[in-house]
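User: Can you predict the 3D structure for this chain?
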Amino acid sequence: MNSSNALRILIVEDDELTAWAIEEALIAAGYGVCSKAGDYETAIRVMIQERPDLALVDIRLKGQIDGITLSEQLRDIRWIPLIYLTANTEIETYQRARKTRPTAFLHKPFRPLELARQIDLAMDNFYQEKIPTGKTPPEDVFVWDGKGGYVRVNTGQIVLINASGGYSELVLTDEEFARIMPGSVHQAMLLSIPFGNVLLYLGDNFYRAGRSVCINLKYVDRVESDRIFLRQHEVLLPIGKHKELLERLPVIRSRK
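Assistant: Here is the predicted structure, written as structure tokens:
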């Protein structure tokens, strides 16, 4: 996988040898490690400064703040996939951790293959669930590339999204598609994620132009009474949507 597309992972583990073993296993599996943290303060700083795509957090950390409380605060900064590392099998601890909505659990000691599988499971689970109200979605999303891995997509480079049954079609800019799929013929990326769930990961610059289409206002080139033009794409505009759309755009009005 291209290093610019690799999943960047934060490891929160206060046992140095275990942290190094996890890092080696992640790098061997093709993932990137943005940083390792052994305490609360370091983990918070990394989340703010380096903005990881996924966090591996040991439930048992030294000090007054454990991994469960830390994870809640990490996700207040940015809602990302979370995998708990634990050697603890107490039902009370499990139930408390479960309330924080982790995307996977990994029991120690673990095998490198199991680590990679849990990351795949975490990514699948993350995009199938809704982001809780008030949480900040990531700037990048990871989508299945059809070749056995996930690829990074910057949401600002999404031109539009179409609903297709229980799937979603992601239409990217030419530049973004060429970056992540070099040498491939440009086509929409089909995601096995419901349309409504995809919309939760998009910013305020996206507008739902119909029941089954959402557009990025950044790429609107022309608006007519019944259609929108975005680069080389044309989207039909339902009755009643024209005025609403214009209110979302910086329109300089003049006499006709």
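The first strand starts at residue 8 and ends at 12. Helices lie at 16-28, 40-50, 67-77, 91-98, 112-128, 174-180, 195-199, 241-247.
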